[in-house]
C-alpha cells in the first residue's frame, strides 16, 4: 500500500495510526500542503485523488481510497486484528459517533483550505482566525468530554481498554489543539486517554514528528 | 424510536431517509434551530444530546445515538434490509468515501452554528457569507462528480441500482444547494441521481417540506 500523506495533516495521522496498529507496511509518499502553492492541487496528485485532499490510500492493485474514516473502516474489515470497532452494534455506534464528532464537527473547520479562505477571501485577521480555530476545538472537546462521561464506556481508551476509531480520531485532534496552545487538561478524560494512547508505539510512530517529511 | 429533528437540517434529513428506506416507524420530535435562541441549546434538549446538535436518535430502551452517519450505520447493521452499504469491503469504502465527502467536506462548513459565527463573530457581510456557503458546495460537488465518473460504479444511484449511504448524504446536500440557487445541472451525474432518488417514496416522505415542523 501507498499512503499519500502530509506529516501535519491530522486526517493523514489517523490513517497512519490505523496502519501501525494493524502492523501493515506501507510506502509513505509526502505531499507538501504549503509548497508549490499546495502540492495536493498539482496535476500529479490530482491524478491519484481528484479531490486534491490528503490522505489518499492506494491499494496494491492500484485502487484509490478517499476519506480517512472510510479508509480505516476498510482496513478494519480487511485486516480485522486488532479490531478498531467494538463487537456489538450499539457500541460501534458510540465509537463512530465519537469519531465523527471530531471528523465532522471539529476538523473540517480547521482544514488548511478553510483557513486560507477565511484569511484570503473573507479577509479575516490572523488573531480572529486563530480564535476561530480554537473555538471549534473547544466546543468539540467539551462535547466529546461530556459524551465520554455520560456514556461511561471509557476505560483506558474511549471505549474500554483497547484503542478504537474514536481514539484514532481524537489523538491527532489533540495534537492540533496543542499546536494552538489549548490547555487540554481542561478536558481531563481526553487528556488521560491521549496520554494512554501515546504510550502505544503505533500512536508514537505515526505522529507528525516521526514522518519522513517532518520539519 | 424517537428522532429529534429539524425539517431543514440536512443531517436530520439523512436519518429520515434511512428510516423510511428501512420502513422503520419513529416519533418525530421537532427541535427548532432558530426559535428560543436555538432550541437545540436548551437544557431540555441538552439532556438528550449534550452536543446541542440535531439529529439525535433515541432507541426504544432510551439509548441516544449521535452523529447522523453513525446512526445510519447502526440502522443498517440492526435492520439489514434493504442494505445501505454494498456487499464487499472495497465497494463499501467507495460508498463511505462519497458519503464522507459530503459529511466531512461540505456540510460542516455550512452548518447553522458555523454561519452564525461567520456573521456575528467574524463580522462577515451576508453576501460574502452566501458566497462561502456556495463555495464549499461547488468545490465538494465538483469532487463528488469527478469521483462518480472516475470510479464508474454509479448506476441509477451512486453505487449501482439501489440507494446507499452515499445517496442518503448527497440528496439533502442537493436540497441545500438548490436553496442557495446553485445550478445543480452543472453536475450532470449528481443531478441525474438526485432525480432518481426523488422518484422513491422514502426520499420524498423524508424531505423537509413533508415534516410536521415544515414552514
Automatic annotation (TrEMBL), chains A, B:
It comes from Cupriavidus yeoncheonensis. Belongs to the GST superfamily. Zeta family. This is Maleylpyruvate isomerase. Its EC number is 5.2.1.4. GO terms for molecular function: glutathione transferase activity; maleylacetoacetate isomerase activity; maleylpyruvate isomerase activity. InterPro entries: Glutathione-S-Trfase_C-like, Glutathione-S-Trfase_C_sf, Glutathione_S-Trfase, Glutathione_S-Trfase_N, GST_Zeta, GST_Zeta_C, GST_Zeta_N, Thioredoxin-like_sf. Residues 1-83 form the GST N-terminal domain. PROSITE patterns: GST_CTER, GST_NTER. PANTHER family: MALEYLACETOACETATE ISOMERASE (PTHR42673). One of its GO terms (biological process) is glutathione metabolic process. Keywords: Isomerase.
Amino acid at each position: 500500500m501507498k499512503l499519500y500523506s502530509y506529516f501535519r495533516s491530522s486526517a493523514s495521522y489517523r490513517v497512519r495510526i490505523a496502519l501501525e496498529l494493524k502492523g501493515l507496511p506501507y510506502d509513505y509518499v509526502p505531499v507538501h500542503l504549503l509548497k508549490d502553492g499546495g502540492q495536493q492541487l498539482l496535476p500529479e496528485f490530482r491524478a491519484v485523488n481528484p479531490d486534491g485532499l490528503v490522505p489518499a490510500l492506494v491499494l496494491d492493485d492500484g485502487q484509490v481510497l478517499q476519506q480517512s474514516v472510510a479508509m480505516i473502516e476498510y482496513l478494519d474489515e480487511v485486516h480485522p486484528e486488532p479490531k478498531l470497532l467494538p463487537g456489538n452494534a450499539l457500541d460501534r455506534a458510540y465509537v463512530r459517533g465519537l469519531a465523527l464528532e471530531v471528523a465532522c464537527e471539529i476538523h473540517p473547520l480547521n482544514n488548511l483550505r478553510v483557513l486560507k479562505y477565511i484569511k484570503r477571501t473573507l479577509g479575516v485577521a490572523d488573531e480572529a482566525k486563530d480564535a476561530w480555530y480554537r473555538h471549534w476545538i473547544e466546543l468539540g472537546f467539551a462535547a466529546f468530554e461530556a459524551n465520554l462521561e455520560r456514556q461511561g464506556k471509557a476505560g483506558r481508551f474511549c471505549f474500554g481498554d483497547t484503542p478504537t476509531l474514536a481514539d484514532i480520531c481524537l489523538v491527532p485532534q489533540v495534537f492540533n489543539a496543542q499546536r494552538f496552545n489549548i490547555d487540554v487538561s481542561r478536558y481531563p478524560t481526553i487528556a488521560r486517554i491521549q496520554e494512554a494512547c501515546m504510550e502505544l508505539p503505533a500512536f508514537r510512530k505515526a505522529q507528525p514528528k516521526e514522518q519522513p517529511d517532518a520539519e
